[in-house]
């Protein structure tokens, strides 16, 4: 480094010259000293590097400085050669091509990978996982699942009394389990309500109604399920019921939906009418609101005794809670039209059930409420004008013409509406053709006379007007439940009639014509009796899906009959009490004639639901 000093003009005095000379000498010494120190440090560093490299280093100038140039070692050369690919990338898989020409294909691949991972994560979460993340999804301190249902554990004991056996039913309300009562040494069905406030509130109403009914039916004779007790278990309300057997839909399924005999249908209908009469007494006035084959259970798979279950949607007259009630196939016109309803809606459901039990197919199988009304009109014709005028949902199903009459709305799918009355109940039941599909031709108890009586009872049950619809009181007096001297094949009613002794219901009737109710309760005289072996006669057929009825259009079969004017409810004139000795005694049929499962597969374990 060279220090250049400017030329200075001679000073006027010698003192200034001396000072400048001294200053320049000191500055030059400092610069020289700094340069020497830097050179020494560089030399020391080069010596160290030379010692490490074994004198293989050379010096190369870099920006006026001496630096050490290290030749590449053989290992580095091999590493660099290894990084050179032997074969270059296919242009079709290059990132530039994937994100330009093949962009759609790239997105599809991304979607496939994403959904594959999502599916794998879902499968992992469903399996057994004891991780902390899984534990967070459990509710009620780990006793409930994410649907607020109690997690059933086989062998668990409730209250150290009920040992859980298995899950036998599940629904929107919760679950039903089979359990063994260690105290009473018997099996029971426990209905475990969801751990949610709305379900708890409705279940408490069900408990209240069941306790009222069971208290009124001390002798257990009116075909209502018995509630043994109820309790709270880990924030779940548990209802303990007697254990029952198949429901009527299971029975139909076991017949391959061919239906049961008219004799057995008669026994079911008489018990159900008796139960509805019991519910309609002024002390109860209970509307079931969800009567259907699934809610009617056999007490024993080889007997015709039945009981009504599931009062979760029920209410008392004057305390109606819901407007959307009843399962669609069994929903009454007043509920569809939005008319205030009463106990008569259960009678409508019963009429639908009885036809289904004999034919094996639902009478009105609508896919929605509009289609349901179309199916009803197709069989029964248009509802009365006064009924449609007073309903606030009439416009949902009907169009009003300028002359004040009504016609069905056109379906939204573009199909033509059904012709009112074009599907005859006469043909559905096969009154003159040997029963539904001709399957009962020649069988005892399936004469034209029997079918005419059955059809007349159904028409009265399916009266559009709830005020004129037949009541349980008058239904039990219908000719369908009578036996006369020239009709020895009709089923007697006494096998299913409640006993009158000690009854607190003086208006509860089971049938008429006590003189014909003899010890023969099978529905057949001795000359027509067939001894069925309950095991040999049972043949299993493969089940199939529930069919949908299709029938040819024909004019509506009309029948003239008086309408009932009384209903057992407050505000109506009750019918007179029956004469002394009117009630028949309750007897059980002999042999296997009372078995609904003869000729039906009973190898499967019964399904119990409440």
From TrEMBL:
ATP binds at residue 191. It catalyses: L-seryl-[protein] + ATP = O-phospho-L-seryl-[protein] + ADP + H(+); L-threonyl-[protein] + ATP = O-phospho-L-threonyl-[protein] + ADP + H(+); L-tyrosyl-[protein] + ATP = O-phospho-L-tyrosyl-[protein] + ADP + H(+). InterPro entries: Kinase-like_dom_sf, PKc_DYR1A/1B, Prot_kinase_dom, Protein_kinase_ATP_BS, Ser/Thr_kinase_AS, Ser_Thr_dual-spec_kinase. GO terms for molecular function: ATP binding; protein serine/threonine kinase activity; protein serine/threonine/tyrosine kinase activity. GO terms for cellular component: nucleus. Residues 162-481 form the Protein kinase domain. It is found in: Nucleus. Belongs to the protein kinase superfamily. CMGC Ser/Thr protein kinase family. MNB/DYRK subfamily. This is dual-specificity kinase. The lineage of its organism: Eukaryota, Metazoa, Ecdysozoa, Arthropoda, Hexapoda.
């Amino acid at each position: 480094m060279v220090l250049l000093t400017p030329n200075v003009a001679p000073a006027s005095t010698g003192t200034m010259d001396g000072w400048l000379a001294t200053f320049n000498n000191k500055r030059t010494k400092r610069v020289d000293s700094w340069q020497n120190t830097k050179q020494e440090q560089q030399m020391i560093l080069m010596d160290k590097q030379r010692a490490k490299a074994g004198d293989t280093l050379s010096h190369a100038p870099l920006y006026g400085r001496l630096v050490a140039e290290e030749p590449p070692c053989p290992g580095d050369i091999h590493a660099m050669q290894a990084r050179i690919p032997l074969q270059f990338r296919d242009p079709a898989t290059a990132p530039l091509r994937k994100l330009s020409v093949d962009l759609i294909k790239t997105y599809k691949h991304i979607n496939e990978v994403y959904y594959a991972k999502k599916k794998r994560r879902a499968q992992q979460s469903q399996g057994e996982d004891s991780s902390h993340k899984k534990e967070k999804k459990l509710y009620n301190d780990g006793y409930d699942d994410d649907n607020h249902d109690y997690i059933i554990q086989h062998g668990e004991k409730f209250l150290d009394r009920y040992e859980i056996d298995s899950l036998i039913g599940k629904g929107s309300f919760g679950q039903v389990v089979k359990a063994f009562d260690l105290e009473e040494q018997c099996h029971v069905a426990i209905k475990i309500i969801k751990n949610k406030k709305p379900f708890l509130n409705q279940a408490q109403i069900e408990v209240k109604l069941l306790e009222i009914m069971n208290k009124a039916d001390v002798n257990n004779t009116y075909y209502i399920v018995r509630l043994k007790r109820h309790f709270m278990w880990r924030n779940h309300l548990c209802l303990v019921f007697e254990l029952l057997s198949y429901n009527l839909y299971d029975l139909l399924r076991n017949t391959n939906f061919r239906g049961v005999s008219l004799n057995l249908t008669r026994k079911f209908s008489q018990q159900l009418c008796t139960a509805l009469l019991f519910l309609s007494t002024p002390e109860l006035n209970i509307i079931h609101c969800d009567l259907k084959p699934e809610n009617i259970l056999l007490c024993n798979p080889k007997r015709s005794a039945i009981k009504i279950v599931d009062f979760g949607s029920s209410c008392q007259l004057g305390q109606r809670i819901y407007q959307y009630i009843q399962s669609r196939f069994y929903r009454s016109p007043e509920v569809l039209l939005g008319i205030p309803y009463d106990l008569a809606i259960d009678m409508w459901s019963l009429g639908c059930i009885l036809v289904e039990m004999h034919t094996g197919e639902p009478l009105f199988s609508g896919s929605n409420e509009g289609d349901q009304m179309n199916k009803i009109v197709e069989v029964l014709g248009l509802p009365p004008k006064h009924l449609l005028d007073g309903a606030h949902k009439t416009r949902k199903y009907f169009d009003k013409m300028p002359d004040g009459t009504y016609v069905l709305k056109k379906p939204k799918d573009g199909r033509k509406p059904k012709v009112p009355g074009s599907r005859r109940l006469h043909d559905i039941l096969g009154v003159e053709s040997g029963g539904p599909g001709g399957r009962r031709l020649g069988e005892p108890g399936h004469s034209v006379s029997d079918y005419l009586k059955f059809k007349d009872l159904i028409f009265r049950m399916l009266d559009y007007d709830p005020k004129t619809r037949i009541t349980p009181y008058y239904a039990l007096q219908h000719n369908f439940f009578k036996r006369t001297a020239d009709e020895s094949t009709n089923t007697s009613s006494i096998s299913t009639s409640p006993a009158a002794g000690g009854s607190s219901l003086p208006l509860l009737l089971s049938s008429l014509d006590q003189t014909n109710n003899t010890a023969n309760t099978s529905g057949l005289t001795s000359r027509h009796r067939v001894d069925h072996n309950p095991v040999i006669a049972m043949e299993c057929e493969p089940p199939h899906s529930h069919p949908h009825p299709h029938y040819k259009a024909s004019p509506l079969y009309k029948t003239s009959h008086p309408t009932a004017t009384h209903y057992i409810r407050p505000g109506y004139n009750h019918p007179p009490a029956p004469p002394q000795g009117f009630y028949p005694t309750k007897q059980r049929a002999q042999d296997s004639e009372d078995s609904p499962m003869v000729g039906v597969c009973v190898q499967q374990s019964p399904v119990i639901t409440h």
